[in-house]
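Weekly structure sync - notes
Attendees: PM, LS, DV (DV joined late)
Agenda: review two folding runs queued last week.

Item 1: First target. Sequence and structure tokens pasted below for the record.
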Amino acid sequence: MTEVDLHGFRHDEVEDKLPNLLIIHYNMNNFPIRIITGKSEKMKKIVREIVEIQGFTIDDFWNDNPGAIILRS
């Protein structure tokens, strides 16, 4: 599974870079993707909003890590 680790990124950097990363991985057929958010609730909220806007699906059922979000295309 492809991973995108957001540790070390500021919130505004994620808002700027994550949409493009998702499109690149989608075009490369690299789904599902595990996005490592860490424990920050604000980061999780930002990622969920971006994912929703991009039209991807969050797979909460298979996620065993509260610091990560699993995306399906």
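Item 2: Second target, run right after the first with the same settings.
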Amino acid sequence: MGESQSVTPVIRPPIHYDSPVVVTGGTGMLGREVVRQLAEGGCPDIRVVDLLAPPGADRGAVRHQRIDLRHDDLTPVVAGAGTVLHLASCQYHSPLAPTTYRLPFFAVNVEGTRRVLEAARRAAVGAFVYVSTSMVYGVPRQIPIREDHPCRPLGPYGRSKLEAERLIAAPPPAGMRTAIVRPPPLFGPGRTGLITRLLDRILAGRPLTVIGGGKNLQELAAPEDCARLVLLAGQGGEQQAVYNCGPASVATMREWITALINEAGSRSVIWAAPPALAKPVFRLLELAHGSPIRREQYGIMDLDVVLDTSTARERLGWVPRWGTVDAALALFRWYRATRGHPPAG
């Protein structure tokens, strides 16, 4: 299933917020885009909360505060806010531990979410949006995956995000709307982690080993599209809602990797690793804390993973602009241009 490698021309007027907005995780890849769109829409007070908030980064309506959600006081930053957009998360590429086996998934994703939600409740915030992940679904039972698909995550990241979702799903106080957004992997400028190994191999012209050969459909979404859905979810919808996020078009894993190889003019070729052999090997390595990828990643790497985004489209009027190949190419072009010189913040 091929797709165009050019961004779909979609008219997207800025989204305006007229009351203060708190953005946790606001210096991350998605957070920066959310903040950019808020500023573009004329939000008068944008409060960026992040453990890695850079000093001297305040611009216009944007104010940064370096806060650790696990223990710092959130009351001052949330006071008087109309909306909280909770993006902060411990992910597999988070710099909070030397290996993925020591990352504080539950301390950040569950306890941190509980503390942000409690601060929002005390401040009588009108809307609370939580960015979760498609990894809460685990192995797909049906394609496309609807929001009511069973949630059986395969690893600690997905389990921690699902537990945080359950906090959000509890009855909110009167006057507060809550929304959960579940995106697939986000690819765009600023993305780091495991994907950089693949990009380095392509740039070096080395072979790429893919479980199953990459013939499965795999969605990658752009930060721009996910950020817009987050902002729309903060403004409208039901009292409690869950929205899948996805790209404008889907491609197979082989198709988007091939697009990167062609973009680089690389000699890389894709080798297929049989799932029946590769997955048990990764599982043994994981048990010994030696696998470069975790079960949440290798367990679905050869499967079709496509999200049904009709709820967001129909109820919020959300229309994604970027396709899977588009998002992968945007990441690759940024990485090639900045390799060895990552942008500040």
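Discussion on item 2: Residues 93 and 193 are 5 Å apart (CA to CA).
Action: LS to circulate a short write-up before next sync.
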